[in-house]
Amino acid sequence: MKIVIVGSGYVGLVTGACFSEVGIDVTCVDIDHNKIDNLNKGIIPIYEPGLEDMIVRNMKKGRLGFTTNIAEALQDAEVLFISVGTPPDEDGSADLKYVLAVARDCGKHIKDYLLVVTKSTVPVGTSAKVKQALQEELDKRNVNIEFDVASNPEFLKEGAAIDDFLKPDRIVVGIESERAEDLLKSLYKPFTLNGHPVIFMDIVSAEMTKYAANSMLATKISFINEIANLCEIVGADINKVRKGIGSDSRIGQKFLYAGIGYGGSCFPKDVQALIKTASEYNYDLRVLKAVEEVNKDQKLVLFNKIMNYFKGDIEGKIIALWGLSFKPQTDDMREAPSLSIVKNLLEAGAIVKAYDPIAINEAKHHFGGTISYCEDQYETLIDADCLAILTEWPEFKFPNLKIVYKLLNTPVIFDGRNIYDADEIRESGFDYFCIGIDTAK
Ligand code: NAD
């Protein structure tokens, strides 16, 4: 089978690489010429463990190609996946202009039956709009070509995307025809042989499932962060509380880590978009509005702790930051808590020195010359007045505390990800602040 993936970002590249890995003939399309030129040279625009090897291997086998020419890519293709971005509009709703542009491109160029599958995260009703946009182009051409639409939201996690795609918890597919169901069943067969289920449903339910899933995860994070903030006030320890509640099988241990808020390209925009969808139907999603509000405040909890420690004056203080990406194993900084924290630190007159194992190039796009970038985590500490941990990269988990102590001007650590044991750090002579434990006592 020959398939086309339109949009060669995180989702498109992982989807394309994984389908080609199981022997399917894949063409990835993007409008970004520079990205496609680089991909054709084997240069991968994002950091995702295992992705580069898989792309290069399948390119060499001739099963994976890259182009900016969608008309050419569509030759003999039976299925096309839309995996372009759906960034938030000014009012929080998902901007569908890229998705609908692809639908129109399909309408302009198809010659035979095509199944158009929306993999981008899109609000309820989008597949109907995709269908309409494509049909309008066929009508303009005055041709009668059969096509189907389907919804197949993507649940991969950046940093573990390949594994998530190859061994998914589930694959959700919304269809409205048997032909579409059969095609997607056979396409996904290699990934479901070991019992990973494909859940078929109607298109609207599939579109809703993606938003409900991300909103649930964001809710867990804001919930535990609120409980953490209260723990600090009442003298409880969030780590103990987490273990205590997580051992209830109805609650579970996962996704209950207190920190400095969720970020990334999905949770913030998907929560916003679902709130907007609800309001369009005159329904007020109160829980999700609170989730968003808590998250916005949580991104500043660490900054506030730094300000308190230095009695409200950090002018000229040098702040060392470990970690800038929104989570480990990715260079993605979209909506990362580091963006809010750095902005506030700079506005308060502090000098920022930062290290991240992967995201430095990405950080340069965001901060330019306003902060300094270090090659190594210990280099950030030279002459620094404190250390703040913003991302829980594994390499930050067991630092040489003697070196950290020696290099810092003031031995104080602000741990936004609760990666250290408070007692151990304090026994090494540091003042230590984290989330959800009152360590000032
Ligand atoms: P991205 O920004 O990394 O990539 C999108 C790509 O689409 C870009 O390369 C862009 O140039 C290209 N593009 C835009 N318009 C185009 C057009 N008309 N024709 C061809 N290419 C076009 O986005 P992403 O992170 O891969 O996300 C894509 C979608 O998948 C979004 O809806 C997102 O919400 C969803 N999603 C993302 C993740 C994730 O972890 N990144 C996970 C699940 C779902």
Automatic annotation (TrEMBL):
Substrate binds at residues 155-158, 210, 255-259, 263, 327. NAD(+) binds at residues 30, 35, 86, 121, 158, 269, 334. The keyword Oxidoreductase applies. It catalyses: UDP-alpha-D-glucose + 2 NAD(+) + H2O = UDP-alpha-D-glucuronate + 2 NADH + 3 H(+). It comes from the Bacteria. PROSITE patterns: PROKAR_LIPOPROTEIN. Its EC number is 1.1.1.22. One of its GO terms (biological process) is UDP-glucuronate biosynthetic process. Gene3D superfamilies: Cytochrome c1, transmembrane anchor, C-terminal, NAD(P)-binding Rossmann-like Domain. Keywords: NAD, Oxidoreductase. The active site is at 266 (nucleophile). Pfam families: UDPG_MGDP_dh, UDPG_MGDP_dh_C, UDPG_MGDP_dh_N. Residues 320-422 form the UDP-glucose/GDP-mannose dehydrogenase C-terminal domain. One of its GO terms (molecular function) is UDP-glucose 6-dehydrogenase activity. Pathway: Nucleotide-sugar biosynthesis; UDP-alpha-D-glucuronate biosynthesis; UDP-alpha-D-glucuronate from UDP-alpha-D-glucose: step 1/1. Belongs to the UDP-glucose/GDP-mannose dehydrogenase family. This is UDP-glucose 6-dehydrogenase. It comes from Flavobacterium chungangense.
